[in-house]
Structure formats: structure tokens, C-alpha cells
TrEMBL record:
Binding site for Zn(2+) 1: H85, H125, E164
Descriptive protein name: Probable endonuclease 4
CDD domains referenced in this protein's UniProt entry, alphabetically: AP2Ec
Family listed: Belongs to the AP endonuclease 2 family.
Organism superkingdom: Bacteria
PROSITE patterns xrefs: AP_NUCLEASE_F2_1 (PS00729), AP_NUCLEASE_F2_2 (PS00730), AP_NUCLEASE_F2_3 (PS00731), AP_NUCLEASE_F2_4 (PS51432)
Protein's job: Endonuclease IV plays a role in DNA repair. It cleaves phosphodiester bonds at apurinic or apyrimidinic (AP) sites, generating a 3'-hydroxyl group and a 5'-terminal sugar phosphate.
NCBIfam families: nfo
Length: 306
């Protein structure tokens, strides 16, 4: 009994000491694997990349050597998870059959590249249902994702597609927690899915992460319609625009309308201890990414407001 208790305490201690995973969206200039070195150099232990140009339909071809180097470097640097962000062009609930067909093919390519790189997560904006009903948009998005992953051997991999909430623009699927939750429900039996929450998107969509009084009701709503265990990644972005504006404009940590305290609160919320925290803040000057990363790491180490 004593040995069991000591083992349990030791395991709990190891879990408590497990470092928070905090990183940035990084460039892949010079080869996709170079992002791992950039993460290591700036002190990040997780990172996000594009596996191909986010604004071109024609995909990049990844060499097997570059994929192997990425896997090797991530092990060497203890850098996980690897998060890939899907192309901005993909619209899996478009009313246009041509756009939807191209989007399905492009998303399938995203999944294949993610698996080749050994990525744990692939973040997706489902798209716009303009010209359709909300219900039709949800149905098309779910069908398109299922079609894109058909016959792709993801089952044996530690891999999930993460639906990201959006800034709440009209017709943008994922602009509310309800829509994200509904899409997860439609997909969970046929695809490896989870959720990525963006602080800027959440804020400008009208949810309150900023005030101490509003934070808990917001988290309770996330828990009710999405499930906290489904949240795998937080995109940690301050916002240039005010709450409820529906304008997706990212700002440096602590310099926007969200401010520092909400980031400290999220980073130190035990309900999100399983998550990776990745910033997609602007690069206006040399050293901006390092400064934003340091801000997040400092807030994660600070348990009480200052």
C-alpha cells in the first residue's frame, strides 16, 4: 500500500512538473524542417507552420528527407505538438461545387502532408456558407471533411483535425461555440477531431474572456457545447479591434483590447493544462516573435495578477 501511495505521489509530481507547451507560428523558409530549429532558438517547445503556401491552390511537395529531419529535430528538441494550419483558400461548405471540390482535394493534401511530417494537429477554418442555410453549411462541411480523409491511413497515427472558431463574420462557419460544437458532433464518429480556440476570434465574436466576471460563464459555455477535453490548442492572440466587432485583426500580447491578464488566466487554468498555446501575432519588427513568446512564458509562470 505504501509503495503504491509513493508511486502515485511521484506520478502526480511528474505531471505537475510537466512544462506548458508555448510556441509561435513560424516560417519554413529554407525547408519545412527549419521551423524546428527556429522554435528551439527562441525557446519555444511547440510550434505551428503552414505545410504549403496558404494562398495558393497548388501544393508544395515535401521531400521524405525534410519530413524525416522534422521528426528527428522535434525529438531532439522535445518540441511537441507540431501544429499545421490549413490553407486559407479552403472552403469546405461553399455553395460552389468547383470551389468545394478544389477545397476537398486541397484539404486531403493538407492531411497527407501533416501525416508525413508526423504532426499531431491540423487546424482548419471550415469556410463560409454564404448562399446556403446554416444547416446546409454544417452538413457540407462535415461531408467534405469525411470525403477528404477517406482512405487516408490516419487511424494508426496520433493525429487530429482541429476545428478553429472564427471571428463571427456573417456566414463564417465556426463564428459561435454552438457551430463548432455541432460540427464536432457530426464528425466525431467518422474523423479524428478536436478544437482550436483563438483568443482574438473569441473576443471579437462577442464572448467575454477579459473580465473576471465574464471569464467563468464563457468557459462554462465552452464546456457545455464543445467539451473542455476537446480543446487541444489555444491560439494566443491579442486583438486590435474591440469585443464584438467581428474584425479579425491580431495584436501583440498585452497591447490590444484583450490585455495581459486574460492570457495569464488561460495559461494557468488547470482545465487547459493539456493544451498547447501558440501565438500568431504580427511580425512588425525584428524580435517581435521572441518578445511575444517571452510575454506568454512570463505570464504562465505568474500565478497571481500583478
Amino acid at each position: 500500500m505504501s509503495n503504491h501511495r509513493e508511486s502515485t505521489i511521484e506520478n502526480m509530481s511528474l505531471q505537475e512538473e510537466k512544462p506548458k507547451r508555448i510556441g509561435m507560428h513560424l516560417s519554413t523558409a529554407g525547408g519545412v524542417f527549419t521551423a524546428a530549429g527556429r522554435a528551439q532558438a527562441m525557446g519555444a517547445n511547440t510550434f505551428q507552420i503552414f505545410s504549403s503556401s496558404p494562398r495558393m491552390w497548388r501544393p508544395a511537395k515535401l521531400s521524405a528527407d525534410h519530413c524525416d529531419q522534422m521528426k528527428k529535430l522535434r525529438v531532439e528538441y522535445d518540441c511537441e505538438p507540431l501544429v499545421i494550419h490549413a490553407s486559407y483558400l479552403i472552403n469546405l461548405c461553399s455553395q460552389s461545387e468547383d470551389v468545394r471540390r478544389n477545397s476537398i482535394a486541397a484539404f486531403r493534401g493538407e492531411v497527407e502532408r501533416a501525416l508525413a511530417l508526423g504532426a499531431e494537429y491540423l487546424v482548419l477554418h471550415p469556410g463560409s456558407w454564404k448562399g446556403l442555410s446554416r444547416e446546409q453549411g454544417l452538413e457540407l462541411a462535415a461531408e467534405s471533411i469525411q470525403g477528404a480523409i477517406a482512405r487516408v491511413p490516419w487511424q494508426s497515427c496520433n493525429f487530429r483535425i482541429l476545428i478553429e472558431n472564427t471571428a463571427g463574420a456573417e456566414f463564417s462557419l465556426g463564428g459561435s461555440f454552438d457551430q463548432v460544437g455541432e460540427l464536432i458532433l457530426r464528425l466525431e464518429s467518422v474523423a479524428p477531431v478536436g478544437v482550436c480556440l483563438d483568443t482574438c476570434h473569441t473576443h471579437v465574436a462577442g464572448y467575454d474572456l477579459v473580465s473576471a466576471e465574464g471569464y467563468e460563464p464563457t468557459i462554462a459555455q465552452i464546456a457545455a457545447v464543445i467539451g473542455l477535453d476537446n480543446i487541444k490548442v489555444w491560439h494566443m492572440n491579442d486583438a486590435k479591434a474591440p469585443r464584438g466587432s467581428k474584425l479579425d485583426r491580431h495584436e501583440h500580447i498585452g497591447e490590444g483590447t484583450i490585455g495581459l491578464e486574460p492570457f495569464r488566466r488561460i495559461l494557468n487554468d488547470d482545465r487547459f493544462s493539456h493544451c498547447a498555446f501558440i501565438a500568431e501575432t504580427p511580425v512588425d519588427e525584428e524580435g517581435d516573435q521572441e518578445r511575444d513568446l517571452l510575454a506568454l512564458k512570463s505570464l504562465a509562470a505568474r500565478k497571481v495578477p500583478v
